[in-house]
Design goal:
six-stranded mixed beta sheet; mainly beta
């Protein structure tokens, strides 16, 4: 018993019986367990060998084991044998054997982490029987492998498969084993030839039935055009390292003496004639930029195809894919920014450009366009708690419908009216943006529009300022005042957060507002008004914010406009004809009042012209009921106009009248 005793007897007594018995035991164990470990299972249960690397843990463990045997007087099996024979002295040795094994197991993570060489498995290197090659297969993209086949040779130098039919593959076996073939993606292999020392092998890229292999010794190459059922040979000096079958008529070999191209005669098979047919796009399609469209074809005998396109009959061919598997029959193409109605696609053999096929008729590549008017949105000053809306016009001058998929702003203070819509070719659409400031501060943000145009996303700058709450208040006339026609009186107000105001007045609760001044700087606080000859005891003045049109105030109570008696008498009742009075005062500077009357309701316009007939102002353009009215003409709204003679024309329906007035500065 014990392996040390056999070695001791062999060295001291020159008796080798124990040593021979150990070698027989090791051989028998290897014959039984090597194939089982290589197979990876027995009776459905997984098994595996343990390979311990050479390193510090092995060296220290062997040293401690040897010391222990010398102190204890035996190894594990010898100690058990001696204890079983009744030796109480060896019980202590056995106890320490158990203690040492337990501690070593508990601390295995420590000593297994010590430096060591990489482990070497004879089974993995030489096969379950020394010198046998083992083939493994993965069906999950290489994440895991499973042993599928063991060849009768020490190596499997080359494995190849058909580009046209990936179920077919071939493998060589050095030493003995010949050439194996699979027709089910490597699940099962059969031997097609028993040639010794096979090395390189390849399948023709254009025909899965044509294969060639070489041998490491023997100076011969073998060619089959019948899927391995029969071979023809040709001499080739040196040992083969690799075979490359470019197509069924072109073969290369890497030999120990160099690289060779085959030059021999054999009948090239024609039963697998190459053919290719482009299916789409084949004419009439309308493919929009940015969309993913499938280019489809039918190919026979072509491993890889090249796909190209052109945008005009004389244009150059642009590469889509230099090489893609021919048997897929489809390629997902992201349509480029190349607008045209004369596009064609071309597909050909990637290896030699023949055969090829081109779209029968042109197809269209359409591209949407996006432009914004205005290019930026400035909302000006808006009071906190209020809002202002501006409109953005989006134009599509492209050849495809503009699809806006999302609209967003970089600040929650700018709110868009909608987030997605479509603008047809050659048309425009509008997008509202509302500014609602949350604080009294300037805002400089961006509006982003994602779409199918090449310039996506379109970015539009947004700006505005949040200001304190806006307020307007008329202070004069504010009720009970009596103002005589023809006199100049100050309309007065207070304003907070308002830039410009519009001033109007009315002579009764039921009459319309008559504009006095269209735009006045609100900071002025007053406006010199020439009181018109429109007698009334129920007159009011109104002011409003020109920017928002929403902040309005008017006289709290009625005031009186006192007119001259002769004019007042004439103004009783509705005029029977169109009336246009001379402005008052005349000459004037800077403002004057024009009185007029219309006999019937309709659209009424009152315009001012200079001496050469150019229109310089429109004082009125709206529907008015029958009655008498007054309009104020303030030249300050027109900027710096010169003194001189001007004309004003009143038009009501088919009737019109004109008078002259003089501006004297």
């Amino acid at each position: 018993f014990g392996f040390t005793a056999a070695w001791r007897r062999f060295i001291v007594e020159r008796r080798s019986a124990g040593l021979r018995a150990q070698l027989v035991m090791l051989a028998a164990t290897s014959l039984v367990f090597f194939p089982l470990i290589a197979k990876g299972q027995i009776f459905g249960n997984p098994i595996g060998g343990f390979v311990f690397p050479i390193g510090w843990a092995l060296i220290l463990g062997a040293f401690l084991f040897g010391i222990g045997m010398q102190i204890g007087g035996g190894c594990g099996s010898g100690t058990l044998f001696t204890v079983g024979g009744g030796s109480l002295r060896m019980v202590l040795t056995l106890a320490f054997f158990i203690l040492g094994s337990t501690l070593a197991t508990a601390w295995s993570g420590v000593w297994l982490a010590w430096p060591a060489f990489a482990p070497v498995s004879i089974i993995d290197k030489l096969g379950p029987v020394a010198g046998l090659g083992v083939m493994h297969r993965s069906d999950d993209g290489g994440r895991t492998f499973r042993q599928m086949y063991t060849v009768q040779g020490s190596e499997i130098p080359t494995i190849t498969h058909s580009s046209l039919d990936n179920t077919i593959g071939y493998a060589t076996a050095w030493g003995t084993g010949g050439v194996m073939k699979t027709s089910d993606m490597g699940r099962a292999w059969t031997q097609v030839t028993a040639t010794g020392s096979t090395w390189g092998v390849d399948v023709a890229k254009d025909d899965p039935n044509v294969i060639m292999y070489g041998v490491y010794g023997g100076a011969t190459s073998y060619l089959s055009s019948t899927a391995g059922t029969s071979f023809i040979t040709t001499p080739l000096n040196g040992s083969n390292y690799a075979i490359y079958a470019y197509d069924r008529g072109t073969f290369f070999a890497q030999q120990s003496g160099g690289i060779f191209k085959y030059n021999f005669t054999y009948t090239v098979p024609t039963n697998n004639t190459q053919a290719i047919n482009l299916i789409a796009p084949n004419g009439g399609e309308n493919w929009s930029y940015g969309s993913v469209r499938n280019i489809t074809w039918a190919a026979t005998g072509i491993a890889n195809v090249r796909i190209e396109y052109q945008t005009s009959p004389t244009g150059s061919w642009q590469m889509i894919s230099a090489s893609t598997p021919g048997n897929t029959g489809s390629y997902a193409w992201s349509v480029p920014n190349a607008p045209t109605s004369q596009a064609r696609a071309r597909i050909s053999d990637a290896s030699d450009s023949s055969p090829l096929d081109v779209s029968d008729n042109p197809f269209s590549i359409t591209v949407a366009s996006i432009a914004a008017q205005p290019s930026l949105l400035n909302f000006g000053s808006v009071a906190v708690g209020l809002s202002r809306t501006e409109v953005l016009t989006l134009e599509n001058s492209g050849t495809a419908a503009l699809v806006i998929t999302s609209v967003s702003s970089s600040s929650g203070s700018f709110i868009v009216g909608r987030s997605s819509f479509t603008v047809p070719v050659g048309q425009s659409d509008t997008l509202s943006v509302r500014f609602s400031p949350a604080a009294t501060q300037p805002y400089n943000e961006q509006l982003s529009l994602a779409c199918n145009a090449p310039t996506t996303p379109l970015v539009v700058p947004l700006s505005g300022s949040g200001v304190t709450a806006i307020a307007l208040a008329v202070t004069a006339p504010n009720g009970a005042e009596v103002w005589n026609a023809g006199t100049v009186r100050n309309i007065e107000w207070t304003a907070v957060g308002v830039a410009n105001i519009e001033i109007s007045y009315k002579t009764s609760p039921s009459s319309g507002w008559i504009r006095v001044a269209q735009r006045v700087n609100a900071a002025q606080g007053s406006f010199a008004w020439t009181v018109p000859n429109t007698p009334s005891t129920e007159a009011r003045v109104r002011i409003l914010d020109r920017t928002t049109g929403t902040v309005i105030d008017s006289s709290d109570n009625f005031f009186t406009i006192q007119g001259t008696s002769d004019v007042a008498e004439r103004r009783v009742g509705v005029p029977t004809t169109l009336e246009l009075e001379q402005n008052y005062p005349n000459p004037f500077n800077p403002s004057t009042v024009i009185n007029y009357g219309v006999p019937a309701g309709g659209n009424v316009t009152l315009k001012v012209y200079n001496m050469i007939g150019q229109e310089i102002a429109t004082l009125l353009s709206q529907y008015q009921s029958a009655g008498r009215y007054s309009v104020s003409f303030d030249t300050k709204e027109l900027g710096n106009i010169s003194s001189g003679l001007y004309f004003y024309r009143l038009t009501a329906g088919e009737f019109s009248a004109m008078k002259k007035m003089t501006l004297l500065k």
